[in-house]
Write a structure and sequence with these properties.
single chain, 4-stranded antiparallel sheet, 4-stranded mixed sheet, alpha+beta
């Protein structure tokens, strides 16, 4: 290793416990996740055993209360864990983010009895969650969802189809938004649905450009019966629960994007310091040096942005605007940095022998999931200038 090889990210962490936690995560990432990432992504293999290991290590419930099996960690720390996992393999980092998103509704809006009954298994019992909001005809316009939940006594009967569901078909539980009343956002209610509920099924996974190891599928609800004890929050509160969850989830996507971009930068630096042309390393040429400098600067800016939003959240202050900014900037940065990494590697960057092309393919989806970047711009503008047409 030369003295110009990439160095570990320097992190400002609030406690010694957090530093030990990040050290544990790096060790797991380097030993268990990164070595098999390229092969398993190419084969489209989902690493369920890694999520079992993460659960056993206390890493699937970090931002939630220790009373229910969580880690009692601030978002400032949890997001940096996500970044490290995503740098090793985006399927894992994003999977943890989605699981955390799926657990949010119950943790934040569930009754004491619901949290006591379900959260310990969700956060530390080896279970894996999925979040069901989008549908084939309602993506960005989520308030127009059509999946219905009809009450029959103390039971709700769910019918409909959800789309673009990470962990669809393999999750142990689904947080589902379904229509229980009038059209629009006020007629939506949230439910916690077991993955083995009769009538629930997953379609064949989508054939995607990247993240082939992470199953994304439609989920069908055909007369799925859910007791009212699994309704989360009040009837008609589901859409506000969904939006609240997405504010936090967007920070998870931002952290994953920074992790992916950091991995691409590290690969570009490694290659540029080793590859020689015209008798010297290509990293000595100003054109490439400037590219590397710009990549590193944008990554650091993204990291600072998502951490600033996380600290607002941890302090109990509004952070929706900053979450949208972080998601927007960090995912656009990931797309630019991974594209530049391919360029720096030249022809080798376009081959599967190096990870740069995989990073570039994976980065694209981050600009789409949990609210497209066009939606993020709308959210930011609404905070700045109010609603359109007022």
């Amino acid at each position: 290793m030369s003295d110009r090889d990439p160095q570990p990210v320097e992190r400002q962490l609030p406690t010694e416990e957090a530093r030990d936690l990040l050290a544990l995560v790096r060790d797991i990432a380097q030993r268990e996740i990164a070595p098999k990432a390229a092969e398993e992504e190419d084969a489209g293999r989902f690493p369920r055993e890694i999520f079992t290991l993460l659960s056993e290590s206390g890493l699937l419930g970090l931002p939630y209360s220790v009373e229910y099996g969580g880690g009692d960690q601030p978002y400032e720390v949890y997001l940096q864990v996500l970044e490290e996992l995503a740098a090793a393999r985006l399927t894992v980092g994003l999977g943890v983010s989605v699981h955390t998103l799926a657990s949010y509704a119950l943790a934040a809006y569930g009754t004491k009895q619901q949290r006591t009954e379900h959260l310990p298994a969700m956060l530390g019992g080896g279970l894996l969650g999925a979040y069901c909001l989008s549908e084939p005809a309602s993506g960005s316009d989520a308030a127009s969802l059509r999946t219905k939940a009809v009450r029959e006594g103390d039971t709700w009967v769910l019918d409909g189809t959800k789309a673009w569901i990470t962990h669809g078909g393999i999750a142990d539980f689904y947080t589902v938004m379904a229509r229980t009343g009038e059209d629009g956002p006020r007629g939506i209610t949230a439910f916690l649905v077991p993955g083995d509920a009769p009538g629930l099924s997953g379609a064949a996974p989508e054939k995607k450009m990247g993240m082939k190891g992470s199953p994304t599928a439609q989920v069908h609800f055909d007369g799925v019966r859910v007791p009212d004890s699994r309704r989360i929050g009040e009837e008609g509160q589901g859409f506000s629960i969904a939006l609240s969850a997405l504010d936090s989830g967007r920070l998870g996507i931002a952290a994953c994007a920074v992790g992916l971009a950091q991995a691409a930068l590290d690969e570009a630096v490694r290659y540029a310091t080793e590859r020689r042309q015209f008798g010297r390393p290509i990293a000595d040429f100003q054109g490439l040096r400037f590219m590397l400098a710009d990549m590193a600067t944008q990554i650091e800016a993204g990291r600072a942005l998502y951490l600033a939003a996380a600290r607002l959240r941890d302090a109990g202050r509004p952070f929706a605007k900053q979450a949208a900014m972080a998601k927007l900037h960090c995912t656009d940065t990931a797309m630019k940095v991974t594209t530049d990494a391919v360029q720096i590697l030249g022809g080798y960057g376009y081959t599967a022998d190096f990870p740069a092309e995989r990073y570039m393919r994976e980065a694209k989806v981050l600009q789409i999931v949990e609210g497209t970047n066009q939606i993020q711009r709308m959210v930011i503008a609404r905070h700045l200038a109010g609603s359109e047409g007022r």
